[in-house]
Amino acid sequence: MQISRRTLGTGLGALAFSRAVPAMAQADYPARPITLVVSWAPGGSTDFVGRLLAQGMSRQLGQQVVVENRAGASGTIGHASVARARPDGYTILLGVNSTYAMATHLFPNKGYDDARSFAPIGRAAETPIFLCTTPATGAKTVAELIALAKRQPGKLSYASSGAGSSAHLATELFLKMADIDVLNVTYRGGAPAVQALLSGEVQMAFVDAVTALPLIQAKTVVPLGVSSLQRSPLAPDVPTIAESGLPGFECSSQFALLAPAGTPEPIIRKLNAAMLATLKEPDVLSRLQAAANAVTPGSPEEFPSYLSAESSKWGEVIRTRGITGE
Fold first, then answer.
1. How far apart are alpha carbons 37 and 40 in whole angstroms?
2. Which residues contact 15 (CB under 8 A, 6 or more apart)?
3. 78-101 as b/e: b if 16+ CB within 10 A
4. What is the per-residue DSSP string for 134-170?
5. Coil, helix or strand at residue 4
6. Are the CB atoms for 125 and 294 separated by under 8 Å?
7. What is the mean pLDDT of the chain?
8. Segment 60-78 mean pLDDT
9. How many angstroms separate the CA atoms of 229 and 241, rounded?
């Protein structure tokens, strides 16, 4: 069969045009609003960080970044929706390590792979959690709480908001490293868990910074330690747990921007630049810090090794402590 030069030229022209379209689309990106999926309910720390990033990145990109909350199943519903989205830069995700590094070991059939289903844009911020007890225990330090638990094995209890939450796994890591036996009492959410601590139903709990700081200032709880590797500037008198006898202890809520796998590198670069610029804006920075968030700007290149280490760490905790998804 013979092919005319005209037909061949038309075909080659169409092929060249089809290859040019993605490049043109990348050059014009973003040409319309971007959806930022937050895989937790409105009002929480992840939603707070997501909305600040969305506002700043809207200014940086010249297009509106719209937050869409898709909560459920420890954040995996929102993650799954982004994993299935078109990799064109118009659907991105604010992930938190309780989902991208912890939930994978609790929900193996979640429908996506944390390492292969996403293209990292970069880490953005992190917020610590505080180990708190009640004045009734008499413990004023981590060492005193550990000694109390060893004198009364299985008698103390801690509050958690469900399997796989950062607070739950922080406590299990703490119990493992301290080699103590404390009963887990699960509540439906962070607020009931904190109320249980305040009422004396439980003797200890890891409480997110935004909730813990007012309680610490009001002296209704006793802060024994903070979960980050550095002390919080908002509570500088509270030592880190790592410096309180458990070296290496660390568990913070760590936020990162992700895109569907296959998103073109120029788009990833543009999103990363917009995120980094947003994190430098004085108003954004002050609002993050006022809510106990530390800015941790990151690149796409460093994220895979970070994810591997974080997932390995929490996978071991989950296996050795016999934790299962609820």
1. 9
2. none
3. bbbbbbebebbbbbbbbbbbbbbb
4. -GGG---SHHHHHHHHHHSTTT-EEEESSTT-HHHHH
5. coil
6. yes
7. 90
8. 94
9. 8
Report the C-alpha gap between 242 and 45 in whole angstroms. Answer: 24
Q: How many CB atoms lie within 10 A of CB 30?
A: 21
Task: Extract the tokens encoding 49.
Answer: 């960080």
Q: Which residue has tokens 């992190």? A: 126
| Token pair listed for 233 | 């500037």
Residue with more model confidence, 166 or 91: 91
Largest CA distance in the chain: 92
Residue among 278, 293, 258 nearest 60 (CA):
278
Phi then psi dihedrals of residue 21, to 5 deg:
-60, -50
Q: Residue 318 belongs to what H/E stretch?
A: helix 303-320
Among 56, 7, 17, which Cα is nearest to 288's? Answer: 56
Q: Which of 318, 321, 303, 320 is nearest to 107 (CA)?
A: 318
pLDDT mean over 106-114: 91
Token pair recorded at residue 287: 């609002």
In the chain, the amino acid numbered 192 is P
> How far apart are the C-alpha atoms of 218 and 36, rounded to whole Å?
36
Dihedral sign of CA atoms 267, 50, 287, 133 in order:
negative
**Given pLDDT bands bounded at 50, 70 and 90, which one contains residue 25?**
low
Kindly state the DSSP code that residue 293 receives in the 8-state scheme. P
Distance of CA 2 to the CA centre of its chain: 60
Distance CA 129, CA 4 (A): 71
| Residues with Cβ within 8 Å of residue 187, at least 6 apart in sequence | 159, 160, 161, 162, 193, 196
Q: How far apart are CA 66 and CA 213, in angstroms?
A: 30
Query: What are the E-state strand segments in the chain?
Result: 34-38, 65-69, 91-96, 118-133, 157-160, 183-186, 204-208, 222-226, 252-260, 294-295
Pairwise CA distance, residues 216 & 206, whole Å: 13
Bridge partners, residue 240, by sequence: 226
